[in-house]
Amino acid sequence: MSEAYQALYRKYRPVTFDDVIGQRHITDVLRGEVSGGRIAHAYLFTGSRGTGKTTCAKILSKAANCLDIRNGSPCGECEMCRGIDDGTITDVLEIDAASNNSVDNIRDLRAETNYTPAAAKYRVYIIDEAHMLSIGAANALLKIMEEPPEYVIFILATTEVHKIPATILSRCQRFDFKRIDPALITERLMSISDKEHIGLEEDAAALIAKLSDGGMRDALSLLDLCRSATDGCVTVENVADSAGLAGSGHLFELTGAFVRRAPAEAIEILNRLYASSADPARVCEQLIGHFRNLMLLKNSSKAADMIVCLPDELEQLKQLAASMESGYIFYGLTTLQETLERLARSSSRRTELEMAFVKLCSPEASGGTEALLARISNLEQEVRRLKRMLEQGIVPAKESRPAEAEIPAAVEAKQSHERRSQTQNKNETEVSAVPEAEQKEMDAALWGQILDTLGKSNPALNAALIGSKAYIRGDLLLVDSKDDLFLQLVRTSEYAKESLRDAIQAETGKRYRLGPYKREKAPEKVESPLDAIAEAARNAGITIEMK
Fold it and tell me: The pTM is what?
């Protein structure tokens, strides 16, 4: 009969304090207490899931009763260690407070403490999820902990320490378990995969480590899942599929619609998602995570370590973050978080999300500090545009609008987008060389103002244009930049060209075609054959007299 399969997180569960990774600040103290015979009567282990709380509780219970303690850790070989491991030693009891949280349960426990241990030195009670105890049960437990028998040890484990009554906290030695560093988890995963003969790419192990959020148990469970899903090597793609990371393209689509101020487009994307059974609250949560990633990339040099995504997606996020203002990202986060709260109470969840999308496309029309700053920025930009037009002798055309009501934001945004698309589709070719006499250099102050405006919408392109100049020939604007990144961006990115056009129009009131400026090369000097002969003669020492 074949041996039953054992999950990796159970098979590789630490059995000594030395096996526990990432919690050295705790294991060293516990080892010292055991070695010195200073074991406390009550401990509180708190931290996120999978960080080793229950594991350390079991190791401590064995160490307290071990017959052959080795450097503060249990030997794992004596009858006490083996009996605690296989459950035959009844003096060590693990209680799940989630299902044993009544007053009667704790009263039964209190009655048991009146009896000395049957086989071990200490009677140990490991109470998992201790925050789930009812108020009555917590009060009953407090009575035991106030004056416990010398042979009783309580070890409480919880993920929500703020729910533990202060009266119980004050009677425990508290240990806070940290999230395990992703690098340590990656190293552990690679070691286990070697022992288990699992083909595991290091990048895949690193992605698993990020997804586990500092929990070793979750990391091993995900590795188990990935191994089951493939017969060969576990790759980044396998991990992404198993963890459900695929399908984030709609987040970039939506963010693009927000940035372009295209509410009709954003609502259409939501309609498509809704038709495929996407939950509005889930879409909102994903967008919050998406904007959080943009915020981190905008404000932290170590953002990549805190973002869980595929490598290709990270590059997309970096480009998107570079093109967005921090103020708008914060506005997006605030709007989405408020929407998520309303979704929990609303009977029309789809409408709530549609409203949020319209707000995200029109921040200047909303309330709040971010919206006010957006309106001020737009007004300043419009004033500068009108000023430039008047300086150039251009009379601003009076816009015709309905007399009774303004055009709805969604329709206006759609029409604006269509006008831009038509202009963008106009024949626009890069001019390799334009005679210098046929163009004039743009005023340096005006070009500097254009770059300042561009920096708010596309910092990456703005950086590539530092020290550049611009030349005008009719409706063609030629940019003279020594940075190759500028040529790469305007040739491959429609967003880059569109943002530069918008910045130019905002400051000049005109919309130009774009092209790179290349200076005319001086005509090469054509040498005469006689010149070559004369040069050779001079080199030979013969005097040549030119007539």
Answer: 0.60
